[in-house]
Amino acid sequence: MDRHSPQKPHWLVKSKNQKEEEGEAQAVIIGGMVLDIHAIPSIPPNPRTTAPGKVRYAAGGVARNIAECVSKLGTKPFMISALGSDIAGNMLLEYWKSTGLSTEGIRMGNEIETPVVSIVFDTEGESAAAVASVESLEQFLTPKWIQQFKSNISSAPIVMVDANLSPVALEASCQLAAEVGTPVWFEPVSVAKSRRIVSVAKYITFTSPNEEELIAMANALSPKHTFSPIQKEASGITSLFQQLKPAISILLENGIKVVILTLGSKGVLLCSKKHFNFLHSIGPKRNNNNKRLQETINRVCPVGRFSGGGGGGVVHFPAVSLAAVVRLTGAGDCLVGGVVASVCGGLDLMQSVAVGIAAAKATVEVETNVPLQFDLDHIAEDARSVYLGAKVVFSQSML
Fold first, then answer.
1. What is the pTM of this model?
2. Which of 51, 175, 288, 351 is in Cβ range 3.0-4.6 Å of 45 for a Cys bridge?
3. Does residue 270 carry a pLDDT above 80?
4. Which InterPro entries does the record associate with it (predicted)?
């Protein structure tokens, strides 16, 4: 973890009185806070021997990364998680405090072992191997702890849960959100944990799998069918969608409203049977205090561009060309964080996905899981490129 405190963009700094007057609604983020240990070799690593390189600590965890990204894009998150009173936990807690965010929802205790993930990268910035020790999240991030924050969930524009939660805690979180009418975002985390969608699919508004997670989720939701990994290397978007369409349809048929399928360098497929403007129905809970993000993106990504194709279906958003890939860890989390921050800030779903892709691009160009700060002008420029390049490629009838 970087020893330097993250710098807040000047436009995020608000006085105490401003915050109290605005009564900011907070996105609730429930899931893992993890200490990442990154091993970055300077030559290709070989088994049974060491390789020269660098080893760094980084504040990580899918939910934590998403929450930090949401914060740095100007929307305040409320984090619900669990940390140990150990060296790793204290490092993560101090970093969280340095951002000025609430620690009220973070359970601490001597009996908790802080989650740690050790990642060995290849020389291209991809994860070559990793070991995760996150069992304490399932043990201590319990339904009882989460239920204490029902009022936060009730007032939230959105609740994001990651699949590090135990199945019982995941179900309790989603049921609680459903009771108070708060939309839920399910982040699959990994192929193995993505299968936890089974008990909560009917509660989910958004989910953000990659292709492998999508296949695993579809297989879990439809045991009578077997969906196999796809051949994606040489596939264009049309071919890719046709291969993935049966799995996407299974998720939508099981109650999930929106599938945001991440395709790496091929961009994102936004899939829904609902009208893409359905977010307006949650207007009273949306946080419109993030005026700078909203106004900046509205200028470069005009509202209503997709109104003609807004009745649901599939929209393809291209990726942004990269200046230089430093590390791919955290890109998917910041894509989700960018969408969540934008939705809470009053942008529509199309604009929000464009911002999410722009945030992901900014992330792969730095060494940390989340950039120390986002340059709003650069985010807006990249979001504009994505937004104008997006196309409605399939109609609702094709899902």
1. 0.89
2. 51
3. yes
4. Carboh/pur_kinase_PfkB_CS (IPR002173), PfkB_dom (IPR011611), Ribo/fructo_kinase (IPR002139), Ribokinase-like (IPR029056)
